[in-house]
Every structure is written in C-alpha cells, then in structure tokens.
Amino acid sequence: MSKVAIIGCGAIGSTIAKAIDSGLVKAELIAIYDIVIEKCVDLSRSMMRMKPLICTDLECLLINKPDIVVEAASQEAVKSHVPYILEKGVDTVVLSVGALLDPQVMERIREASVKGRSRLFVPSGAVCGIDGLKALSIVGFKKVKLITRKNVKSVDEKSLLNLGYKPSDITDSTVVFKGSAEEAVVKLPFNINVAATLKLATDSEVEVEFIVDPKTPRTVHELIAESEASRIRVIVENVPHPDNPKTSYLAALSAISLLKRLIEERVVIGT
C-alpha cells in the first residue's frame, strides 16, 4: 500500500487526510506536519483508523519513507520544502501552485526532481478545462484570460489591504486587481492559485481580473482561451469549503482525485 505524508493540516490537508482515513484513497497516511502543532493534534484525534506520526520538522515527515508527499500549506512551504523532498526521491503533489511561477523556485524543483528521479504533480484545482488547455498548448494561444469573482469573506484580508482596499468598505462588485498571473500570485497569494495552474498548463501569458463581490455566494472562475485549434470558455461556480470559506471545496476534491489516480488507476482517463 502506498504511503502518504501531508504538509499542512488546514481545510484542504485535513480533507485529504480524512479521505485516506475513510478508505476513499487506498493508501496509508504515515505522517502529518504543520507549523501549528495543534492543527496536527486536532486532525489526528479526528481520524478513525489512521494514526499518523505528528511531525514538527521535515526530517520527521520523511523518516518513514513516504511514496508521496502532499503540500497543502503555503507558497513558502513549497519554496522551503519541496525541492528537498524531490531530491530525496519522493514524488510530491503541490497545491500552493503560485510558488511555481517563481522562475528560481521552478529551476530548483526541476534540478531536484532530476537528481532524485522524482516527479511533481499539480492538481487541476478549483477550475475545469485543464486537459483541453494542455492539448492546445501544443499549437499555442492567441489569448488566455481568467476572471475570478469572490465574496469579500472569501478573500484574504491582508491581501486586500495591501491592494488598497478595506474589506468593510467594499459594498458592491469591485475589480481589485488586473494584471498577469505572475503578478496575481504575489498580490493574492492565498486566493488565486487557479491563475498559476492556467499559466503552467498553457505556457502562455495569462491575463487575470480579480473581482470582489459581497453579493456572490460562490467563487466564480471564468476562463477564456483562444487558439487556432479551438476557443474555450469555461465558467465554474464553486461552493466554499465548509471549513474554510477562502478555499473552494472543488480544490480539495481535485487533490483527492489526483491521489486516487496516482495510487490506484491502471486505466487513465484524460490528457
């Protein structure tokens, strides 16, 4: 049975852990790690079958030789930990995708994966159509645009303040950011991983528009992509994660689906 370790015991990390614990993902959860140790303790206590090792550092996480490590913590965790994990020969699933748009981070990851003969995987996350975009990247794109609309309660307050907006002052639909995917993941590091995923899938410039709307109950991602082979327009209306409104429930389910694919599937569907 495949052995999995998880970095980050927030809403998504906990959802993945419970999917393993319930048997939905046929794997053994051997270790969990979070900089807030209480989150690890609470997660461990909530589990029915698995009793993973609670870790306070990366060496602890790797001591029992996991087959896959899932990062569900932060961009900083990706930068600090993922190259080392890959260099040790452990395949890694990254959810804080924004970190991968830093060229220096990506170069370190590529070098580490070659040295460790390991691979890095990025789930589709909170958007659909990634398989089509990957196929179209062969011929290139004329345009790729992402329009994201979120309730103010689902947006990181510090990010809004840094953009010059006080959350309590936003009473109507407001465009708080326009720019590239690279700029978006820096300005909105906890709210726009989708932009990074699109950038990686298309290998093209991605125009991002981020709207804060106190009246919308869901997080809406509208993707528009144009190429010589196809025109794609996808609208996804995501329900917030029940344990963290800043995260879409679909993002957690996407990671679980990827784990099942890596661990269980012998017939692979999709690009």
From TrEMBL:
<dbReference type="InterPro" id="IPR002811">
    <property type="entry name" value="Asp_DH"/>
</dbReference>
<feature type="domain" description="Aspartate dehydrogenase">
    <location>
        <begin position="171"/>
        <end position="256"/>
    </location>
</feature>
<comment type="similarity">
    <text>Belongs to the L-aspartate dehydrogenase family.</text>
</comment>
<dbReference type="GO" id="GO:0009435">
    <property type="term" value="P:NAD+ biosynthetic process"/>
</dbReference>
<dbReference type="GO" id="GO:0033735">
    <property type="term" value="F:aspartate dehydrogenase [NAD(P)+] activity"/>
</dbReference>
<protein>
    <recommendedName>
        <fullName>L-aspartate dehydrogenase</fullName>
        <ecNumber>1.4.1.21</ecNumber>
    </recommendedName>
</protein>
<keyword id="KW-0662">Pyridine nucleotide biosynthesis</keyword>
<dbReference type="Pfam" id="PF03447">
    <property type="entry name" value="NAD_binding_3"/>
</dbReference>
<dbReference type="Pfam" id="PF01958">
    <property type="entry name" value="Asp_DH_C"/>
</dbReference>
<dbReference type="GO" id="GO:0050661">
    <property type="term" value="F:NADP binding"/>
</dbReference>
<dbReference type="InterPro" id="IPR011182">
    <property type="entry name" value="L-Asp_DH"/>
</dbReference>
<comment type="function">
    <text>Specifically catalyzes the NAD or NADP-dependent dehydrogenation of L-aspartate to iminoaspartate.</text>
</comment>
<feature type="active site">
    <location>
        <position position="221"/>
    </location>
</feature>
<dbReference type="InterPro" id="IPR022487">
    <property type="entry name" value="Asp_DH_arc"/>
</dbReference>
<keyword id="KW-0560">Oxidoreductase</keyword>
<feature type="binding site">
    <location>
        <position position="126"/>
    </location>
    <ligand>
        <name>NAD(+)</name>
    </ligand>
</feature>
<dbReference type="InterPro" id="IPR005106">
    <property type="entry name" value="Asp/hSer_DH_NAD-bd"/>
</dbReference>
<feature type="domain" description="Aspartate/homoserine dehydrogenase NAD-binding">
    <location>
        <begin position="8"/>
        <end position="123"/>
    </location>
</feature>
<dbReference type="InterPro" id="IPR036291">
    <property type="entry name" value="NAD(P)-bd_dom_sf"/>
</dbReference>
<keyword id="KW-0520">NAD</keyword>
<feature type="binding site">
    <location>
        <position position="193"/>
    </location>
    <ligand>
        <name>NAD(+)</name>
    </ligand>
</feature>
<dbReference type="GO" id="GO:0016639">
    <property type="term" value="F:oxidoreductase activity, acting on the CH-NH2 group of donors, NAD or NADP as acceptor"/>
</dbReference>
<comment type="pathway">
    <text>Cofactor biosynthesis; NAD(+) biosynthesis; iminoaspartate from L-aspartate (dehydrogenase route): step 1/1.</text>
</comment>
<dbReference type="InterPro" id="IPR020626">
    <property type="entry name" value="Asp_DH_prok"/>
</dbReference>
<keyword id="KW-0521">NADP</keyword>
<dbReference type="GO" id="GO:0051287">
    <property type="term" value="F:NAD binding"/>
</dbReference>
